[in-house]
Design a protein that fits this description.
By secondary structure, this protein is of the alpha/beta class. The longest helix is centred in the last third of the chain and has 35 residues. Helix content is about 50%, strand content about 15%. Strands 1-8-7-6-5-2-4-3-9 form a 9-stranded mixed beta sheet. It has 9 helices and 9 strands.
């Protein structure tokens, strides 16, 4: 269905171009895929649109917004940069999976997979993601990640029972997972603005149903900006889904290392560590997600 925005709300243009708004519960996430700035606050809506951004936030849906400059040529360059970066994602995800497999195989060959091996061997690893993961395993193996066995074992209380890098890794993964669950669990709400003025607003259901509203009197270039933004959002959602799928597969690979299996909350830590490794590889291509 197509609607026309006849009296849009205009907000001041900011330097942030690509935003992902998911309501007040978006805690900890700062940036998704090196592109989308995660924002917790609601944003303005058009007055005469049959579906609205506020409605999306009330139902728990995320809103993906491109707030572009008024100059269409400059706006197109912003979009081209985002599209170019996003096209690298499939190759970087494949690279991350291969590097994780190589890491586990190499570690096994050099230090074995025993709990004690990680505390007493310096294994040669190449790349910052590998070094980061190796440091985490050594910390756990050396007993430097304390475990509070008095802490309640609940899904979001696991970091309270751990310390050091292990707790940080799980907390970061939870922050990432919170935002992803909101970004993927509902409709994709996609909004494109030029200098704060709404050009187009689209909702896309999981079945492919599309509802779109356009500002009256748009040029073909302005319409194209919204269509490109919609394609960018859908590609970003696919990348997030693929990242989670690879993290699950990576957790199975890391579970071969007994230092994780022998640790309380080992399966959860393996999943979080696999995601952290994948995210570090994505960061090398400017596609990582920053969380706190």
């Amino acid at each position: 269905m197509t609607n026309v925005v006849t009296n849009p709300v205009v907000v001041e243009h900011t330097e942030t171009v690509f935003e992902l708004t998911s309501g007040p519960s978006a805690n900890g996430a700062v940036q998704m895929l090196g592109l989308w700035q995660a924002l917790p606050q609601p944003i303005a809506k058009g007055d005469e649109v049959s579906f609205s951004v506020d409605e999306a936030l009330q139902t728990g849906s995320a809103v993906w917004r491109a707030d572009l400059p008024a100059n269409t040529e400059l706006a197109s360059r912003y979009m081209a940069g985002a599209e170019s970066n996003n096209h690298l994602a499939p190759a970087k995800l494949e690279e991350a999976a291969n590097r994780l497999d190589t890491f586990v195989t190499s570690a096994a060959a050099q230090a074995g997979l025993s709990f004690e091996a990680y505390a007493h061997h310096d294994v040669s690893v190449v790349g910052e993601p590998e070094q980061d993961l190796w440091g985490l395993l050594r910390e756990i193996s050396n007993g430097e990640a304390p475990v509070n066995r008095e802490a309640p074992v609940v899904s979001y209380g696991i970091p309270d029972a751990l310390g050091g890098a292990a707790a940080q890794t799980i907390q970061q993964f939870q922050a990432f997972l919170d935002l992803v669950s909101q970004a993927l669990a509902h409709y994709a709400w996609v909004e494109t603005r030029a200098a704060g003025e709404v050009l187009g607003l689209t909702s896309v259901g999981w079945t492919g149903d599309v509802d779109v509203a356009w500002l009256l009197g748009l040029t073909s270039d302005q319409e194209s900006l919204h269509q490109r933004n919609l394609a960018l959002v859908l590609a970003s959602r696919r990348t997030l889904l693929k990242t989670l799928a690879l993290a699950s597969q990576g957790a199975v690979t890391l579970a071969k290392i007994s230092v994780l299996v022998s640790t309380p909350f080992g399966p959860v830590l393996a999943l979080a560590a696999a995601w952290r490794f994948i995210n570090r590889v994505l960061e090398e291509g400017g596609l990582g997600s920053r969380v706190s």
